[in-house]
Amino acid sequence: MAVKYKFLADLLRKDLVRGRGGRRLPTEQELSQRYHMSRQTVRHALRLLEEEGLIRRRQGSGSFTTGLSGNLPSRQVAMVTSFLDDYIFPTILHDAQSVFSRQGYSTLVFATENQVGEERAILQRLLEQPVGGILVEGSKTALPNPNFDLYQQLLQAGTPVVFLHGAYAELSEVPCVADDNFSGGYQLAQYLLHRGHTKIAGIFKSDDIQGLQRYHGCITAIRDAGLPIPDQRFCWYDTQDRLEMVNLRDASLLRRFLENRLGAATGVVCYNDEIAYLLIRELLALGRRVPEDVAVVSFDNSYYSQISPISITSLRHPSPRMGQVAAEELLRLIQGENPISQSLPWELVERASG
How far apart are CA 175 and CA 287, in angstroms? Predict the structure, then answer.
């Protein structure tokens, strides 16, 4: 018996090398018939593979590969992000890698610079050199996705995929771990309203879905307060504008906002801490006081919120953090379980700017 079940386990182990995580194995009866061995021998072989971490057995559902199949690609997961130097990514990467490493996975990291062309090149590489799973922050998720065909090829090949921060409309069936952006925008606007600000402005990012969702929450709170929606007080910027503001120190967009759009508004909801930090610097340069003349609130509770000349009132995630949650969902998918999309709640951290 010992020789037979180890022989069968070896045959199955070699087959696992050709597969990837999440693949369902034949039933015990099917394996028994295929290899002309007893059900007891098959059961012993599967138990050995389970002990080695190569499969996971689920009562009533069968056995599924975990992705730890002995070949290097299947023991790797890819993390595809927009900007490696983005102020929130190091924490997300650290949290995700901690989860992956505990399960025996190494991590390949790619950056798209939020460019669909770069995203396409990375996806093509991952098709040619498969990995056990992909955790991906899509590029320009508010816009139609020209890389839909490559995502479809990855999914058809059985590669587990989980989106981070925002999913493409064309791929709504793919699980996504994101911020609860609508509620966050609503919460920040409501915070300003409760502090007596009846004229509220905003700055949001136009080419990522998070910007649209945060704007939607903000204007909904204004509407629910019975106030007119002030279209002219809202400013939009895209990825290229962001690069010019951060890398080239070009503040012309913010100056135009302050000169032409802010008007009588006394509170501003910002897309994130980065834009809030830059806006506060421009307000102070113009002699405007924060928060006495203009209150500024934002998202992420990053180091920007603390190094700003006026510390920023900002939203943060309670524990667990996004990187951990997203990595756990990808591992569930790799292991043949059914992950779910999640929207992480926010909590407010009050500081001097609001």
Answer: 47
Q: Residue 114's closest CA among 89, 92, 151? A: 89
Q: What is the pTM of this model?
A: 0.80
- Residue 343 pairs in a beta bridge with 178
Q: Is the peptide bond before 291 cis (omega within 30 degrees of 0)?
A: yes
Buried b (16+ CB within 10 A) or exposed e, 193-202: beeebebbbb
The set of residues, in sequence order, having a beta carbon less than 8 Å from that of 22 and lying 6+ positions away, is 64, 65, 67, 158, 160, 333, 334, 335, 336
SS3 273: helix
User: In this structure, what token pair is assigned to residue 7?
Assistant: 């022989």
pLDDT band, residue 317 (cuts 50/70/90): confident
Note the pLDDT of residue 73: 42
The Cα–Cα gap between 43 and 26 comes to: 12
Residue 20 has pLDDT above 70, yes or no: no
Strand 62-65 and strand 234-237: pairing? unpaired
Paired with 107 in beta bridges are: 77
Instruction: Read off the tokens for 288.
Output: 């405007």
| Separation between Cα atoms, residue 291 and residue 297, nearest integer Å | 10
Length of the chain: 354
Task: Give the burial string for 64-93 (b: 16+ CB within 10 Å, else e).
Answer: bbbbbbebebbbbbbbbbbbeebbbbeebb
Rounded CA-CA distance 69/87 in Å is 35
Residue 72 pLDDT more than 50? no
